Amino acid sequence: MMKDFSIRDLEKQCIMLKKEVISMIHTAKSGHPGGSLSAADFVTACYFKEMKVDPKNPRWADRDRFVLSKGHVCPIQYAALAELGFFDKSVLATLRKEGSPLQGHPSMNKCPGIDISTGSLGQGLACAVGMAIAGKADKKDYDVYAVLGDGECDEGEIWEAVGTAHKYQLDNLIIFVDVNGLQLDGTTDEILPHIDLGKKFEAFGCDVYNIDGHNMAEIVATLEKCKADRNGKPKCICGKTVKGKGVSYMENQLGWHGVAPNDEEYKIAMDELDAQLAALN
Amino acid sequence: MSDQLKATREGFGDEIVELGKANKNICVVDIDIGKSCKTQAFRKALPEQYYNVGIAEQNGAGVAAGMATCGKIPFVVTYAVFGSERMLEMIRQEICYPKLNVKIACSHGGLTPANDGASHQCVEDLGVLRTIPNMTVIMPADYYSARKLVAAAAAYDGPVYLRFTRDAIPVIYDDSTPFEIGKAHMIKDGKDVAIIANGDTVRLAITAAEELAKKGIDARVVDMHTVKPLDVDCVKDCIDKIGKIITVEDHNILNGLGSAVCEVVAEAGKGIVKRIGVQDQFGQSAPYERLLAMNGITVENIVATAEALQ
Q: I want to staple B218 with a disulfide (CB 3.0 to 4.6 A). Which of A14, B104, B190, B287 is the partner?
């Protein structure tokens, strides 16, 4: 069921979520802005266009599932959940604070709308596979969306899980790899070259789509293709992205993986995002 | 203790079929070692509830966690060494932290994969897993208690680690003996020494008590099948009424049953515990009884230890 959002609406929504991300991390004085911004377009498309969810009934049995395997970028998911009404927006200011439902990495038992706790890289995809298996077993028509980092694909468990997705013909599983090319200690090419991630997922039995991970129209069109093609193959979207996208001084910078902006940097970031928003109006 | 011999892994294999037939949400997630772990009857009888994810333990734990979020009750089945330590962080992150309804059911616990050598033996699992919040840790002592405790684990909503063993061992109980998670089973009461054991060593404790009786020493024998949550009341009763405790386990003497009992005794501020178990060393390829003997896990050592306490 397509929600009534135009591509332009989604683009604007994405920038508004990015502003929340910057505010949350600035307030918390810690968090991961770079990857939150690179995954923002895909997360927006999922929550505001493609996924069946019910903010009033977060554990609705027929909902689509969302697994943030790269759990450290949860600020972007928290922003989306708050905007949809899973919890009050004022909660966003409690990110990483004692007693907050918004843990530094997502906890399913603390935060409404989180389908599985994540944070230790490489583990989310197997959980998504388990959800997709259960969906098939129960003859449900929900889909499972899993967001992975490209650096995260260093982990062997990712490839074990893709093999299982292929075996059980999980065409209800849509994997998005946020290919921003950077991981904590350097570029992905420096740390552990992937050679060709798309080809790897293809070799493991997925339908692979290599797209621009910041092109909202392309993301939405690709997700529609994934949902239309129930051919027994898991779907993998490799989205080429820019870490820190939308904030000039963070873009493609290694230093902005897990650092909060100071007051001055915060203002610059918000001004830049406001300008991008104004340009869309 | 009867002359009938049956392995606890057989108890799991038989019970899981019955549970699966009664509840279609009960699933087996095998890791390509199902033949040894006795899931073949389940695989044959309930193919739609049976999954085999290949030689990929970490993935198996994650898949089970995801299934559990959707209402399934998956039993991840492998050998103890792989089902505890190979998938340990996945158990912690994706099963115990969210307190998901996943059971890890492992055969070949302790030194029982004797001829396979140290790589396949597992003397650390109970200790490692009992330190993870939300985890329940169980090791049954015979075929019938294994069946009862598998059923109890399936009925309990939360993570459970079940440790079975390879060898056919004497049947101690019958089908009518009730078993409850966290409630120790007293096999024989006594006033001079309490022998608290679990798993395959319970039979050694029973035989030792018989030997001790001949020497005029009246031993209580306790089957402490649940290492976590430990039956603290039972241990306290042993302290209050007897004061002298011997723990026996096929596990490292560090962090297992003996350590758990010592924690209670230390806080009580009275009583004495002697721990019999694996002496913080790896095993080797050898007959099981020899491996036990190398670590003093014998009837003779239990008897001698009890005598020395008198």
A: B190
